[in-house]
């Protein structure tokens, strides 16, 4: 029985995600954590070990940094627009959570960082992000820029070096990162988290940061 490349990519990405979630899940003293009442995960080395400065290109072709993009509470996801099912589902959940948060009185920015710069030009990103949500920010860049951002966020992706056609798959992790101004990274969410639970968790962190 043959196994499709998409199943191989999803399986390997899931295995790596499980491994890294296991690495993140270490004991942390809640007494030193201002977000202890909100947090569902604990981070190896503390939350400062994840996230950091980046320089990328937005969907309008402008070079931007993390300081330009992450000016509000933000939900950051690494994926690619040609992803057949995982990325659209995950981003659909994220932007739905943003709409729930809007109704709750919280202004949160959804951010999508492409791990497929070969195909995800600013023009492609703009069409894709505008379709999903009017406030969704799409970011791409050179391979080196994207690799640096992925390394900062401790996330994984792997694209074929010499694809045979335009329908290749990119293996990648599927965590969503919550970033807060003045705090940086504070939490990550698996794709199993519902939009309602995600919104409630984000609201808890935003309130705790005030």
From TrEMBL:
Q: Which CDD domains match?
A: SCO
Highest taxon of source:
Bacteria
Family membership: Belongs to the SCO1/2 family.
The cross-references to PANTHER family, in alphabetical order and at most eight, read: ELECTRON TRANSPORT PROTIN SCO1/SENC FAMILY MEMBER, LINALOOL DEHYDRATASE_ISOMERASE DOMAIN-CONTAINING PROTEIN
Q: What is this protein called?
A: SCO family protein
């Amino acid at each position: 029985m043959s196994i499709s490349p998409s199943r191989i990519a999803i399986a390997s990405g899931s295995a790596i995600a499980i491994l890294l979630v296991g690495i993140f899940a270490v004991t942390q003293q809640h007494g030193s954590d201002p977000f202890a009442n909100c947090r569902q995960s604990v981070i190896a080395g503390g939350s400062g070990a994840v996230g950091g400065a980046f320089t990328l290109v937005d969907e309008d072709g402008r070079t931007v940094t993390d300081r330009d993009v992450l000016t509000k509470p933000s939900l950051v996801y690494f994926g690619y627009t040609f992803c057949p099912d995982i990325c659209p589902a995950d981003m659909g959940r994220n932007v739905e959570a943003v709409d729930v948060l809007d109704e709750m009185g919280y202004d949160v920015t959804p951010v999508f960082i492409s791990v497929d710069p070969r195909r995800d030009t600013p023009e492609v990103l703009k069409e894709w992000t505008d379709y999903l949500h009017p406030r969704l920010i799409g970011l791409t860049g050179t391979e080196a820029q994207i690799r640096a951002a992925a390394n900062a966020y401790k996330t994984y992706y792997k694209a074929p070096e010499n694809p045979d056609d335009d329908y290749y798959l990119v293996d990648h992790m599927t965590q969503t990162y919550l970033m807060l101004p003045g705090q940086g990274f504070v939490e990550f969410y698996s794709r199993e988290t519902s939009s309602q639970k995600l919104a409630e968790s984000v609201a808890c962190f935003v309130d705790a940061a005030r």
